[in-house]
Amino acid sequence: MTVPETEWRKLDRRTVWVTALRVVGTAAAVAAPVVVTVAGQTSPGMAVTVVLPTVVLAIAVGIVGDYVRWRRTSYRIGPERVELHTGILVRKRRSLARDRIRSVDLTAGLLLRAFGLVHAKIGTGEQTGAGESSLSLQPVSRAEADRLRRELLDRVPAREESEPRDGTLAVLDPSWIRFAPVSFLTPAIGGAAFGAVLQVAEWFGMQDGVITWVLDLLRSLPVLMAVLALLVTGVVVGVIGAIALFVEMWWRFRLEREPGGTLRVRRGLLTTRSISLEERRLRGIDLVEPLGNRMLGAARVDAVATGLTQQKGNERTDHKTLLPPAPRAEADRIAAAVLREPVSPTASVRLRGHPVAARGRRIRWALLGVLAVISPLLILGLVLTPLFLHLAWICALVLVPIAVAIALDAYRNLGHGLTGGYLVARNGAVRRSTVALQRRGVIGWTARQSIFQRRKGLITLTATTAAGGGAYSVYDVGESEGLVFAEEAVPDLFGPFLERIDAPPAHRS
Predict the structure, then answer these.
(1) Which residues lie below 8 Å from residue 16, measured CB to CB, with a gap of 6+?
(2) pLDDT tens-digit profile of 450-483?
(3) Could you tell me the domains of the chain?
């Protein structure tokens, strides 16, 4: 029997079982270190007597609360609006106009996947705050989520036969995992691992013992060997963690173009994710090359689209990534396929360089950064002990060449150009970004010029758009060249404010 579209529907009832298992697991994880701590001060029996009633009460409250939430939540897909009624103490009634809906993103962790459920988030792509631009259905069955996604997004008329066919654009190549260890996450994960070990040791009252054991082990080694041992351990742990994170996020990655003009990214090992993006929201792409990936010839592709500005709160921002770190040739191919261009604008354009004065600015900023690091050491050396003076000159000896090299690389990476319907801007050294932005997507230009830029004849131009980060800059370009570039890229925005100097008429004999 077909259910009428106007009938109110409930979330999947199995949410109560999912919540029960989740609450029990969380309560056990929290209670275990508490029981160990209390048992160390009194006795195991007393610890269980004190903690167990609290744990049972917390589990009961969580299960009952989710059951009431399920009973009080309903939704329906109407001809014009999607409506959601929810709330336990305060009843909320919210709705979204169907013609404004731009995404139906599906997420499922291990528990949800075990029960065949997903978390469906229906969004308009607007950034209005307080969640007013999206409705969250948590959870629904996978079949229901797929039905919602098809029904709400597949509303574009069929395209001409001459246009590219729908289908799979990219799938994960396991060899791409080699790009994970050169991520900036590697040292961060290595450092976090040491902190995690100390935290777990503290829970069980063993932190002092762990620290003492490590210090005794390091004292048995020469100073240089001890430092190298710590660095190697951190790097190894960081590499393993970075690879594990990459696999968890991007395993079974697939980029598809679906009927109706929708790009869909599916990925994830433990937590599966399905992210949909309407092509009509696309305003360009951002080819991102962090330093480590660039050294190995890799890049990732991010979408520049309306509704994909930086999220607030705890929302993840990797929803804009259309291709994880992959060989540069593959990234260019995907960029072209996504934009429906024969060649990617980031690969076909010849970027114009920037004045030499821009190089000097980057070198000066780099040296100021080094000065900010060594200045406290110099002060401490003059006030406390000469040891800090030695640390200062060692840091300067190491950091100055690195800072200058990064500054020179940043200057070489500056560039801008036009190709077809796109303006292209490149900048960055540690994280090089090459943005190809549709010229029709630019709604304004902002020209900024500091007193130091004015003395060097430089200017920074920022293209304002309703997509992506909202603004993309061409840094430290020559003043006259930059203004002409802005007018050429998007005529009539800067034109009325430019003073044109015409050549004097030639004298006739």
Answers:
(1) 63, 66, 67, 70
(2) 999 999 999 999 999 988 888 999 999 999 899 8
(3) 9-153 (no CATH), 167-172+251-307+318-348 (2.30.29), 179-249 (no CATH), 359-398 (no CATH), 414-497 (2.30.29)
Query: What is the spatial distance between Cα 393 and Cα 402, in angstroms, rounded to a whole number?
Result: 14
Residue pair 250/267 in contact by the 8 Å Cβ criterion: yes
Q: How close are the terminal C-alpha atoms of the chain, in Å?
A: 94
Per-residue model confidence as pLDDT tens digits over 413-422 = 999 999 989 9
Q: Is the dihedral of CA 353, 357, 362, 363 positive or negative?
A: positive
CA 155 to chain centre: 29
How far, in Å, are 93, 295, 346, 347 from residue 332 at the CA level?
A: 45, 17, 7, 7
- DSSP letters for 57-87: HHHHHHHHHHHHHHHH-EEEE-SSEEEEEE-
Angle at 301 between CA 297 and CA 307, to 5 degrees: 160
pLDDT in tens, 159-177: 444 444 568 899 999 999 9
- List the one residue out of 237, 272, 236 whose CA is nearest residue 251: 272
